[in-house]
Specification:
With 193 residues, the chain is of the alpha+beta class. It has a single domain, classed as Alpha-Beta Complex (Nucleoside Triphosphate Pyrophosphohydrolase). It contains six helices and eight strands, in the order H-H-H-E-E-E-E-H-E-E-E-E-H-H. The strands form two sheets. Strands 1, 4, 5, 6 and 7 form a five-stranded mixed beta sheet that branches. Strands 3-2-8 form a three-stranded antiparallel beta sheet. Helix 2 runs antiparallel to helix 3 and helix 5 packs antiparallel against helix 6. The longest helix has 16 residues. The protein starts with a helix and ends in a 5-residue tail after the last helix.
Length: 193
């Protein structure tokens, strides 16, 4: 049986976007290359049932005042950007990132600051239930939110907060979040990523 997700997302277009992406550092460059290789070698890279791993979509959401949106993920018990799995109705990974951000935050408006990939990360997800430990090949996009719109946390979140970039780095000191904080600070200063 074919995977409906594989039909709806164009892996070749995502590979082209990844090849155009300018990684922030050598670590992100290596992860970007790993995701390209994963897409080229995996029959169903978008399927969340793929036990080796799959492509996920995230949104780094910022406000005009410089705060960033973080969610405290219930299952993983840690702070992250909003995001999740690609669904059959998603036309692209970008569309999946936007949908996930809206669903997980309760926001009704998001403005993409660029259609280009903002960040790439590969990270291990621990085993849970019948799903073994696997990799998330996370493609992240940059969005701006309406400043005064209230947040509404969903069932996957213990908490949802706008935080200063420095606080985001404290809540999740992983290289993944630290790198997105550095990127958004550079953008706030008008420096190209």
């Amino acid at each position: 049986m074919s995977n409906p997700i594989a039909k709806s997302i164009d892996a070749a277009a995502l590979i082209a976007d990844l090849l155009r992406h300018e990684p922030f550092d050598a670590h992100e460059r290596a992860m970007t290359e790993a995701v390209v290789q994963f897409l080229r070698s995996t029959p169903e890279p978008f399927s969340s049932t793929n036990q080796a791993g799959h492509i996920t979509a995230s949104a780094w959401v910022v406000r005009e005042d410089g705060l960033v949106l973080l969610t405290h993920h219930t299952k993983l018990d840690a702070w992250f950007q909003v995001g999740g799995h690609v669904e059959p109705d998603d036309e692209s990974v970008f569309a999946a990132a936007r949908r996930e951000a809206l669903e997980e935050s309760g926001l009704t408006e998001l403005r993409p600051l660029s259609p280009a990939i903002f960040d790439v990360d590969v990270h291990r997800i621990p085993a849970r239930g019948p799903m073994p430990a696997h990799l998330h090949h996370d493609i992240r996009y940059l969005f701006a939110a309406v400043v005064d719109e209230p947040l509404r946390r969903g069932p996957e979140s213990r908490s949802l907060e706008w935080v200063a970039p420095g606080r985001a780095a404290e809540l999740n000191p992983s290289e993944s979040v630290q790198r997105m904080v550095r990127k958004s600070q550079r953008l706030a200063k008008g420096i190209a990523p």
